[in-house]
Design brief:
Elements lengths: L4 E4 L9 H5 L4 E3 L5 E3 L12 H13 L5 E4 L7
The chain binds iron/sulfur cluster (SF4).
Iron/sulfur cluster binds next to helix 1.
């Protein structure tokens, strides 16, 4: 399985709650409902494990605004 990283672009998050429903162990929210990735506090530096990738994909595909990002290298990206 390809290794990759994830992150929420919080400027694109509309606080709909869908990612937390789909992947409750991976996504949490701040007081305004803006999502973040739990394992690395949304830094984008945590290499998602095989089981995390399954849950991540559900949220990635389910996010209505495309705010959930994935990449093959850790953040920050130039
Ligand atoms: S599904 Fe997308 S828009 Fe909805 S809370 Fe999660 S990151 Fe934000």
């Amino acid at each position: 399985m390809t290794l990759y990283y994830g992150k929420v672009d919080q400027s694109a998050c509309i606080a709909c709650g869908r990612c937390q429903l789909l992947a409750p162990r991976l996504f949490s929210y701040d007081a305004e409902g803006i999502a973040s990735l739990i394992p690395d506090h949304n830094a984008g530096t945590h290499e998602l494990t095989a089981s995390e990738q399954i849950a991540f994909k559900l949220a990635y595909r389910g996010c209505p605004t495309g705010a959930i990002k994935r990449a093959n290298t850790p953040w920050p990206h130039d």
